[in-house]
Design goal:
about 190 residues, alpha+beta, 5-stranded antiparallel beta sheet, 7 strands, about 40% helix, about 20% strand
């Protein structure tokens, strides 16, 4: 590929014409309309997952881990069209978290923020926890935007659930119904 005559846009066009990969590595595990989620095992797709972590480091000040990624599974959210799958965001989680973390790192790329994708990724992480019969919580510390997003999600889930309940319910029962841990570090006690 000659960079002298084509420039960077020409290089991108040439690469796009030659590259047959139109989806992320891994397995598509969810599809609804033009939204897809791919599960990517960091052991099988180490370089791809390291590159995801390096991408996240561009947007997350506290992101430090990007080489020792084998203990993690990545869940990549994409918008899908006739051209292929386009990265919107992702979250990673440890395969076996002794602290019940269902998210190690979460990122929605800036062009896709404020469109509900962050809430979708958070909800998807809790649906995986429900599937596994566990409660979960994100790894801390959370960024300021992360705290805001999780508080919003927790409020939404708990208020929606409480609206339909009659009688009393314990914190433990709410935790079991939602897979949200009984963790008050980020203000869920103010919701109840």
């Amino acid at each position: 590929v000659s960079t002298q005559s084509t420039g960077s846009s020409g290089i991108n066009a040439e690469y796009g014409a030659k590259c047959e990969q139109r989806t992320p590595a891994g397995t598509e595990i969810y599809r609804y309309g033009s939204i897809a989620v791919y599960e990517i095992d960091a052991v099988e797709h180490k370089v791809y997952c390291q590159n995801l972590c390096l991408l996240a480091k561009l947007f997350l000040d506290h992101k430090t881990l990007y080489f020792d990624i084998e203990p993690f599974i990545m869940y990549v959210l994409c918008e899908v069209d006739k051209e292929g799958s386009h990265l919107v965001g992702y979250f990673s989680k440890e395969r076996h978290s002794p602290d019940f973390h269902n998210v190690a790192c979460i990122l929605t790329l800036p062009p896709f923020q404020r469109k509900g994708y962050g809430k979708f990724l958070i909800q998807f992480s809790y649906e995986l926890s429900k599937r596994d019969g566990q409660v979960g919580t994100p790894e801390k510390p959370l960024s300021d935007l992360g705290k805001l997003s999780y508080r919003s999600y927790w409020s939404w889930v708990l208020l929606d659930l409480l609206r339909d309940l009659h009688g009393t319910v314990s914190i433990k029962e709410l935790s079991n119904m939602t897979s949200i841990t009984e963790d008050y570090n980020y203000g869920t006690d103010r919701i109840i």
